[in-house]
Design brief:
about 30% strand; flat; 6-stranded antiparallel β-sheet; Elongation Factor Tu (Ef-tu), domain 3; 7-stranded mixed β-sheet; alpha+beta
Length: about 500
């Protein structure tokens, strides 16, 4: 069943289906809450994903120059030319990547030794050839408030692996594919979970290099540092959108926009929607704050759009119930100064006004042009991270098996990412909740019991166990040999 069919089934059971949008929205919320919470509550076969998350290689920059001004709350590093293996000169920024944002940087050899220590990379700025750091300390300010350059050594290390946005529970971690850097089969094997408490008891080194044997789960950065969940933009205050008559216009109609911040490679929660009406002669202009004035670097702005009521060339009105990610399509020709440094439409932290400009891949002229942009992701603003021990200092594929949170059922024709025979459970559970709200506890209890029966069937059919070891017992010796092979014996994880 799709969303509409499940809603119609609920209405048929309740014998109540008022033609009111607020009621339909309420039933949709019940369906989505039931579906998504149940989906991620158990390691069902259908609720699991397996992906490879690649580690990043280390990067070391001896002789990098760091400078700052008294106006900077946090300090930026501007690096000098460095020698590569081929003896050609290249800036340090070009030796690391945008994906290193959020990685750890170890700074040594500073003139003021109190500035040595562990930092977090907030931003990689290719345009200005700079890297912005924040010190991981309860007192992050450092003594670089001079005009003189300080020659330092910077070692970039990926201490934490950020997992996919839809990951809710890790089931298994290992290396099953050969490393891309030649470590071969020596790197293959299962990686065991280690609790934070056990990690502390063993006092395991953060940056010991080698083949990983254990991993530690983090729901945020462990050190004294600000994380992305502390940045949530507000429509009308942190950003506005208006129409501008320039270039190729968007289809006429009413749009809703949401914005998020992207910092250290992680995306914040989305803002509340901002509505704007565009005539047939205009395209959107995005106005945002210069977030660098607060001393933070790297808070790029990302936008989403919903077609609330759009008139197409067929003169029909088009509308969507979900938001689309305007950065999900790669930029082929840089559309503006704010996005010129990146492969996707992201507005830089110090940009305050950016007009949409059509490019080869980002052309928006008709309603159909929106269909290539992906829907918004789930779990925005929250990401699980793991720390590997020992830490691979090379490109290594780490296989992650996990329970994922499915996307919301937004459109009437959206279907759950579950087998057909599980949809009755969702319907019965929603009926139980709705009957209870309508002060009918007997019927609520009746459909609650029906839902529990369906859940038992689902568990028996689709529920699997977490990763475990299996060992083969020894052969039976002797003249009778009634059972030459013993059954497998399952040992749970330690």
């Amino acid at each position: 069943m799709n969303l509409k069919e499940m809603r119609d089934t609920v209405a048929s059971i309740l014998d109540y289906d008022p033609d009111v949008q607020s009621y339909r929205d309420e039933i949709n919320r019940y369906i989505n809450n039931t579906y998504r919470n149940w989906f991620a509550s158990r390691p069902y076969e259908f609720s699991q994903k397996t992906v490879d998350v690649y580690t990043m290689p280390d990067a070391t920059a001896p002789g990098a120059a760091i400078t700052s001004s008294t106006s900077e709350v946090r300090n930026w590093a501007q690096c000098t030319a460095l020698d590569r293996d081929d003896s050609s000169e290249i800036g340090f920024v070009n030796r690391i990547r945008l994906s290193h944002e959020g990685s750890v940087a170890i700074i040594t050899d500073s003139t003021n030794t109190s500035n040595d220590g562990t930092y977090m990379i907030d931003k990689v700025d290719f345009g200005d050839n700079r890297v912005y750091f924040s010190k991981l300390s309860s007192t992050p300010q450092v003594d670089w408030y001079t005009t003189a350059l300080d020659s330092i050594t910077v070692s970039v290390r990926q201490r934490f692996l950020t997992l996919p946005a839809d990951c809710t529970d890790i089931l298994g971690v290992g290396i099953r594919n050969v490393s891309e850097t030649g470590s071969g089969t020596n790197a293959l094997g299962k990686i065991q979970n280690l609790t934070r408490r056990r990690d502390e008891d063993l006092n395991l080194r953060y940056d010991l290099e080698g083949t990983p044997t254990n991993f530690v789960v983090y729901d945020g950065y462990p050190e004294h540092t600000v994380d992305i969940d502390q940045f949530v933009p507000r429509a009308g205050k942190d950003f506005t959108v208006e129409g501008v008559a320039s270039g190729t216009a968007w289809p006429a109609g009413t749009y809703e926009f949401k914005m998020s911040y992207v910092w250290r490679g992680i995306e914040s929660q989305l803002s509340d929607p901002f509505e704007v009406q565009l005539p047939s002669t205009q395209k959107p202009r995005f106005k945002t704050f210069d977030t660098t004035k607060q001393g933070f670097r790297g808070l790029r702005k990302k936008f989403y759009v919903r077609l609330k009521s759009i008139t197409g060339k067929d003169t029909k009105t088009h509308e969507e119930t979900f938001f689309r990610d305007l950065s999900s399509v790669p930029v082929k020709t840089s559309p503006n100064a704010g996005a010129s440094q990146y492969s996707y439409f992201l507005i830089d932290d110090d940009e305050t006004q950016v007009d949409w400009t059509n490019t080869t891949n980002l052309t928006i002229d008709t309603v159909d042009d929106f269909f290539g942009f992906a829907r918004e992701e789930v779990n925005i603003g929250y990401r699980k991270r793991i720390r590997l021990y020992p830490r691979p200092a090379s490109i290594t594929p780490i296989e992650i098996r996990y329970i994922y949170t499915p996307p919301e059922l937004s459109d009437d024709f959206d279907r759950p990412n579950t087998p057909e025979d599980t949809h009755r459970y969702i319907v019965y559970r929603v009926c139980s909740e709705t009957f209870m709200k309508h002060n009918n506890p007997d019927m609520a209890d009746f459909y609650d019991r029906k839902a529990e029966k369906e859940l038992l069937k689902i568990d028996n059919k689709y529920l699997t166990q977490r990763s475990a070891y299996y060992i083969k017992d020894s052969f039976i010796s002797g003249p009778l040999r009634v059972r030459p092979f013993q059954t497998l014996t399952r040992l749970p994880d330690a």
